[in-house]
């Protein structure tokens, strides 16, 4: 037999502290726009230990004691996302090419129960990272014309847009 634990029965991660810093650098270098997004966050959950007594008086171990392997990990995450774009605008349309670099680094720790319950072939690495370059182009055109409908004058617009990521 087995038991299904619902999400509300397992202690969620706390995200404390979480520090986020986003912005655009006030530099005008030939129309280039420099942006950044950074985040530092500590993911931690205080897994409950021991037993609890339910409303019927039955005693059972906390569901947290049954969480195995990597699901017991706590750690820090640092995310850095610098970017540069060149927005070009005209009366008939726009184009905005941009380049970003996403870097995320994790520093994890795992308690002894988590290490003892790793699945076969599963390894614990206390430091993981990823690097992802991103290139995108956002572009669009503006088509306007005056039109009349039921004796009223209107301006009809059509704005097709193409976004490549």
Automatic annotation (TrEMBL):
One of its GO terms (cellular component) is transporter complex. InterPro entries: LptD (IPR050218), LptD_C (IPR007543). Pfam families: LptD. Residues 7-165 form the LptD C-terminal domain. GO terms for biological process: membrane organization. This is LptD C-terminal domain-containing protein.
């Amino acid at each position: 037999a087995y038991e299904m634990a619902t999400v509300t029965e397992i202690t969620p991660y706390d995200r404390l502290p979480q520090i986020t810093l986003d912005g655009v650098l006030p530099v005008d270098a030939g129309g280039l726009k420099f942006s950044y997004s950074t985040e530092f966050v500590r993911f931690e959950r205080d897994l409950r230990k021991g037993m609890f007594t339910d409303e019927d008086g039955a005693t059972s171990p906390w569901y947290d004691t049954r969480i195995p392997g990597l699901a017991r990990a706590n750690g820090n995450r640092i995310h850095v996302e610098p970017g540069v774009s060149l927005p070009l605008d005209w009366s008939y349309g726009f184009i905005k090419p941009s380049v970003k670099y996403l870097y995320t680094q994790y520093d994890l720790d795992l308690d002894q129960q988590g290490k003892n319950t790793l699945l076969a072939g599963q390894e614990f690495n206390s430091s993981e990272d990823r690097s992802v370059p991103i290139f995108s182009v956002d572009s669009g055109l503006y088509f306007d014309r005056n039109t009349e409908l039921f004796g009223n004058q209107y301006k009809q617009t059509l704005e097709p847009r193409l976004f490549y990521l």
